[in-house]
Amino acid sequence: NPTRRPLMAGNWKMNLNHLEANLLVQKLAASLTAKQLTDVETVVLPPFTDLRTVQTAVDGDKLLVGYGAQDLSPHASGAHTGDIAGPMLTKLGCTYVVVGHSERRADHHEDDTIVNAKVQAALTHGLTPILCVGEGLEIRELGNQVAHCSDQLDAALKGLSSEQVAQVVVAYEPVWAIGTGKTATPQDAQEVCGALRQRLAGNVGPETADQVRILYGGSVKSSNVAAIMAQPDVDGALVGGASLDAEEFAKICRFP
Ligand code: PEP
């Protein structure tokens, strides 16, 4: 869709120290032309401990690469040992934050209520949430993926104004396709991404729904990205494993 700028976001997960982060960001930016970085928004999502280094690289060399964090606290500050608050991320120049990744839902028992609070915290502190939804294998085998993902979307966006919904990036990540090498077919991706946009349209109107970028995530590689990006309701990709290799991620960003 020409009105929505494609977004490629690299989720590094719990990989790379700050020295490796610096190398990867520099290499990534050097592998893409200014036009490519303008046509396709390119974002990295490093661990918290790398963010200051990424900020220094991006600011110092005026790299056209955005960055953000993989999680944030629903609270703005206070007695929450080990957590990181939205204002800390904004201060480091982050523009994005992942919310509700399936690994956090599983490892840290994050439920829809927490995910909703985190989406609200992100928006309050000037960060664009990349809200992840997706079904596990059992739900997919029952054919309930659309209902499941649409319900997760509603729960995560509860209480938001349509102006706020317009700022959210949604990522459809079928859990069975994350880190498994099993990519959803382009038709599978379109089925759910299209349904999510329809659900948004029902909730906040078609004009707002048309503005929202919906990403696909799950074993995206340079070899399968073009077919996924050809789907009308897929506006980008959330890339895990393949984003740890600068040349491979750059190829993904050069998908057109
Ligand atoms: C992810 O963790 O968001 C993801 C899509 O991982 P991978 O690309 O490795 O499947």
From TrEMBL:
Keywords: Cytoplasm, Gluconeogenesis, Glycolysis, Isomerase. It is an enzyme of class 5 (isomerase). Substrate binds at N11, W12, K13, G179, S219, G240, G241. One of its GO terms (biological process) is gluconeogenesis. One of its GO terms (cellular component) is cytosol. Its EC number is 5.3.1.1. The active site is at H101, E173. GO terms for molecular function: triose-phosphate isomerase activity. It is found in: Cytoplasm. Pathway: Carbohydrate degradation; glycolysis; D-glyceraldehyde 3-phosphate from glycerone phosphate: step 1/1; Carbohydrate biosynthesis; gluconeogenesis. Pfam families: TIM (PF00121). It catalyses: D-glyceraldehyde 3-phosphate = dihydroxyacetone phosphate. CDD domains: TIM (cd00311). Its main location: cytoplasm. Homodimer. NCBIfam families: tim. Belongs to the triosephosphate isomerase family. Involved in the gluconeogenesis. Catalyzes stereospecifically the conversion of dihydroxyacetone phosphate (DHAP) to D-glyceraldehyde-3-phosphate (G3P). This is Triosephosphate isomerase. It comes from Salinispora tropica (strain ATCC BAA-916 / DSM 44818 / JCM 13857 / NBRC 105044 / CNB-440).
